[in-house]
Design brief:
single chain; Beta-Lactamase; disordered C terminus; rod-shaped; alpha+beta; 57% helix; 493 residues; 5-stranded antiparallel sheet
Length: 493
C-alpha cells in the first residue's frame, strides 16, 4: 500500500472517528438540552395553568359571593315588601303579581315567599298550588330552609336548584322574613355564573393552552386528587388518555407538598405543579402532558444538520488528506527516484533543490540525501580510480608471473631432460639376460634413480634408489649425491 493511500486512510479514519464522536456528544447534549427545555416549558405551562386556575376559581368564587350578597339584599327588600303587604292587608295573589312585575323588569329571575311551614305563599308565578312547598318548587332540600324558617339564620346561599318541572338551573339565596315567620328566596339563572366560569375559568384556560403548542392533554385535580377539569388536544378524547401510574404518583406527590418535577416517557413529557389557594395552601394540582413529537422533529433536524456538517467535514478532511498525502508523498517519490539514480550512477546534483527549500523534515531529508549522494558518487569515483590502478598493477604482476612461469617451465623441462640423460636407457646385451628401464616422474622431476655397472666379466650390478619426496629439490639432491658417491657415473656424465 502506498504511503499516500495510508495517509488518506489514516486521516479519513481518524477524522471520521473524531467527527462521529463529536456528533454523538453534541447530539446527546442537544437532546438533553431539548428535554430540559421542554421540561422547563412544561413546568412553566403547568405552573401557569395552576396559577391561572387558582385565579380563575377565585374570580368566579368572588363573583358568586358578590352575586349572593346582591341577591341577599334583594331578598331583604322583598322581605320588607312582604311585611308591608301584610300590614296593608294585601292578598297573596296581588303580592304575586307585584313580584312577577319585579322579575320582569329586573335581573331577578325568581322570587319565592313561604309561610312559617315552608309552603308557598306568594311568588313570581301565578299557577302554583299553595299546598306545594317552596323547597319542592325550587328543587332544594327542605333542610336548607330550616334555619331560615326557625329564625336561626338571617340569610344563606342555598346553591343551585333544579325545578322538578324542568327549566334552567337557578342559583338561590334565602333570607329570613322581617317577622321571622317566613322565608324569602331569590333566584337567578346559574347560566350567568356558568358563562362567567366558561369565559374566565379553567375550561377556557384549558382550551387556550390546548389550541396551539406541544400540549397533548391537561388535568386539574382537586385537593383530594379528584379530576376537576380536563382537556385534550383537538382531535383527541380525554377519555383515551388515561393517566399512567407515574403521573398519578406525581400528582399525589404534589398534593403532599413534594417539589414539582417532570416525567419523561417515550411519547410525552409530564409535568405537575401545585395550585395554592388564597392562604398559600395546596388546593389542587395542575398536570400537563406535552408531546415529544416536536422534540423528535427538532432532534431529527439537529441530526440532519449535524450529519450534513459531519459529511462536509469528512469530505474536507479527505480532500485535505489527499493534498497532504501528495505534498508528503511527492517529495518521498522524488527522493526514491534520486536514490535509484544514485544506484544507476545517473544522479544529477541539484535535482532535489526544490524539495530542499522546504523547512520541514522532508526538506532536511532532501538536503541531507543530496549531500550524501554527492559523497557517494565521489567515493565511487575514487574507488573506481583505485580499482583501475590496482587492476593495472595486477595485470603487470600477472605478466611478470607468466614470464617467470615460462622460464621456470623451460628450466624444468631442461632439468627433466638432464635427469633422464643421467639414467641409462638400455642395458648391455648378453646371451644370458636382457633388460630395459624407464622412469616416469610424478611431477617434472623425481627422486627415483637406477643404474648398472659391471663387476667382472660375468656379473653386472644394478643400483636402484629413491629419495623421499618429489620435485626439483629431491632430484637435485639425488643427482649431487650420485655424482659424489659413484665416480664411474660421474665419469659417464
Amino acid at each position: 500500500m502506498q504511503l499516500r493511500t495510508r495517509l488518506v486512510l489514516m486521516v479519513g479514519l481518524t477524522g471520521s472517528i473524531g467527527i462521529l464522536a463529536v456528533a454523538a456528544i453534541l447530539t446527546l447534549l442537544a437532546w438533553r438540552g431539548i428535554v430540559e427545555q421542554a421540561e422547563s416549558e412544561g413546568l412553566v405551562i403547568a405552573r401557569l395553568l395552576a396559577q391561572s386556575a387558582t385565579v380563575s376559581e377565585q374570580v368566579v368564587a368572588e363573583v358568586g359571593d358578590l352575586l349572593d350578597r346582591e341577591m341577599a339584599a334583594q331578598g331583604l327588600l322583598v322581605s320588607h315588601l312582604a311585611d308591608i303587604a301584610d300590614r296593608a292587608a294585601m292578598d297573596d295573589r296581588t303580592l304575586s303579581r307585584r313580584l312577577m312585575e319585579i322579575t320582569a323588569r329586573s335581573a331577578v329571575n325568581e322570587v319565592w315567599i313561604s309561610g312559617p311551614d315552608g309552603r308557598f305563599r306568594a311568588g313570581a308565578a301565578d299557577d302554583v298550588d299553595p299546598l306545594d312547598s317552596v323547597a319542592t318548587l325550587t328543587g332544594l332540600s327542605p333542610q336548607s330552609l330550616s334555619g331560615l324558617l326557625t329564625g336561626t339564620e338571617f340569610s344563606r346561599p342555598l346553591g343551585v336548584g333544579k325545578p322538578p318541572l324542568g327549566g334552567a338551573p337557578m342559583r338561590y339565596v334565602g333570607v329570613r322574613g322581617v317577622d321571622g315567620a317566613r322565608a324569602v328566596l331569590i333566584g337567578r339563572e346559574q347560566k350567568s355564573v356558568t358563562d362567567l366560569y366558561q369565559s374566565v375559568g379553567v375550561p377556557r384556560l384549558l382550551d387556550g393552552l390546548l389550541r396551539d403548542g406541544p400540549v397533548e392533554a391537561l388535568w386539574v385535580f382537586g385537593p383530594y386528587g379528584g379530576v376537576v377539569a380536563s382537556g385534550a388536544r383537538t382531535g383527541r378524547q380525554i377519555e383515551d388518555l388515561a393517566l399512567t401510574d407515574a403521573e398519578t404518583a406525581l400528582v399525589r406527590g404534589d398534593l403532599g407538598g413534594a417539589r414539582s418535577k417532570a416525567i419523561v416517557s417515550q411519547n410525552w413529557i409530564s409535568v405537575a405543579a401545585a395550585m395554592p389557594d388564597a392562604y398559600g395552601m395546596t388546593a389542587g394540582v395542575a398536570l400537563a402532558r406535552l408531546s415529544t413529537a416536536s422534540l423528535d422533529a427538532l432532534l431529527a433536524n439537529y441530526l440532519r444538520i449535524g450529519g450534513l456538517a459531519a459529511a462536509a467535514s469528512l469530505l474536507a478532511g479527505v480532500a485535505l488528506s489527499v493534498l497532504t498525502g501528495r505534498r508528503i508523498a511527492a517529495p518521498m517519490v522524488a527522493i526514491a527516484g534520486a536514490a535509484a539514480a544514485v544506484d544507476a550512477r545517473v544522479f544529477q546534483p541539484g535535482s532535489l533543490a526544490a524539495i530542499g527549500t522546504r523547512r520541514d523534515e522532508l526538506g532536511h531529508l532532501a538536503r541531507t540525501f543530496e549531500v550524501m549522494a554527492k559523497q557517494v558518487l565521489a567515493r565511487e569515483e575514487e574507488l573506481e580510480e583505485q580499482v583501475r590502478e590496482r587492476t593495472a598493477e595486477l595485470m603487470l604482476k600477472n605478466e611478470q608471473l607468466d614470464q617467470a612461469k615460462r622460464r621456470l617451465e623451460a628450466d624444468l623441462a631442461l632439468a627433466q631432460v638432464l635427469q633422464a640423460t643421467i639414467l641409462p636407457q638400455a642395458f648391455p646385451g648378453d646371451r644370458d639376460w636382457s633388460g630395459a628401464a624407464r622412469m616416469t616422474p610424478a611431477l617434472q622431476m623425481a627422486g627415483d634413480f637406477y643404474d648398472y655397472f659391471p663387476l667382472d666379466e660375468h656379473r653386472l650390478a644394478l643400483v636402484i634408489a629413491d629419495v623421499s619426496g618429489k620435485g626439483v629439490g629431491v632430484s637435485e639432491f639425488l643427482c649431487v649425491r650420485l655424482v659424489l658417491s659413484h665416480p664411474p657415473l660421474g665419469e659417464r656424465l
